[in-house]
Structures are given as structure tokens and as C-alpha cells.
Amino acid sequence: MGKIVFFEDRNFQGRHYECSSDCADLHSYFSRCNSARVESGCWVLYERPNYMGYQYVLPRGEYPDYQRWMGYSDSIRSCRMIPHDSSGSYRMKIYERPDFGGQSMEFSDDCESVQERFHSRDIHSCNVMDGYWTMYEYPNYKGRQYFMRPGEYRKFSDWGATCATTGSFRRITDF
Q: Residue 116 is inside which H or E element, if any?
């Protein structure tokens, strides 16, 4: 079981709310989120209710202000715990075209630069076969984050992106 504590103010101050399961609407518990402590598990935080908007993947640790999780604002409105995958297996295949078309490449490890490894920054579709992953807008694990669970993503909007440009991705291994 996971546990995350949200705080309205920086440095774990102000009103707080403890959460140990998925929550589609956190707005009734606090008005803003400026810091968080992940006591157990790994979590995805969402900017809007019902698991929408910008996404932030937070492994166990302390985040004294929202910039520490690469947040764009103090707005966190829903959260989801990432299930622990005990298999330790990671496999993802990326494609240069929608509906699994064009050039493809399979990965089982982190990719710091999609451009260097795939020779393109555009990923239009993806099949996550094993494990949980985070895609990033820019190389070196920077920019907007997208949580990828096992499944087929026929177009980039299926994982919440507004364009196909992807800079990097990595496995979620910190539980």
C-alpha cells in the first residue's frame, strides 16, 4: 500500500492531506499543493481532476516545493498510485507513425535521448508490453511527463501528449 502527503505550503507547512489510494478529485481537501512527501509507493499527480492535464511521476521521497517534481504550478487535482510490478521486466516498442506504422524500435532500458537512439524525436504510437514508464518532452528527462502503463497507444494523444515530439523516457523502478 502506498502513501502520499500533500501540503498547501512549501517545506511541508500548512494544511495537509494524506492519501493512500487513487483520488479523482483532490480539490475538496486542499486549494493548492506546494510540497509533498511520498512515504511509500510511487505516484502520478495530475494538474486537473479525473486524471487529466499535466502529469508528474513521484517516486518515494520528499519534495519541499512543486518545482522539485518539475511542476508548472501549485495545482494538483487528482492522483493515482502506480501498482508495484514485481516482475522487474520492462519492454516498450515505439513507432514513427500512428497505428504502429513506419520505423520502430524496441527498448528495455532508459533512453536519455530519443533523437540519438531512434534518429527522430517524433513518436506517434507506442506499445508498452511490460513495466511502467515515464516519457518526457525533452532529452535528459526534462519537460512535461507522461505516465505510460502497459497497453497500446495508437496515437500520441492516447498518452496525453499534445504533439509527437518526445525527448527521452525511462522505466519507473522506484517503489
A: helix 114-118
How many residues does the structure list for the chain?
175
Taking a C-beta distance cutoff of 8 angstroms, is the pair 129, 100 a contact?
A: no
Cα-based torsion angle of the residue sequence 41, 44, 45, 50 in order, rounded to the nearest 10 degrees: -120
Give me the residue spans of the domains in the chain: 3-81, 91-171
- What is the model's pTM? 0.87
What DSSP designation does 119 have? S
* Residue 128, number of CB atoms within 10 A of its CB: 20
Class of domain 91-171: mainly beta
The answer to whether 70 and 145 have CB atoms below 8 angstroms apart is yes
Chunk the chain into consecutive blocks of 10 residues (it has 175) and report each block's average pLDDT, rounded to whole numbers.
94 96 92 96 95 93 94 93 82 98 98 96 97 96 95 96 96 82
Cα–chain center distance at 80: 10
CA dihedral 108, 113, 116, 117 (to 10 degrees): 10
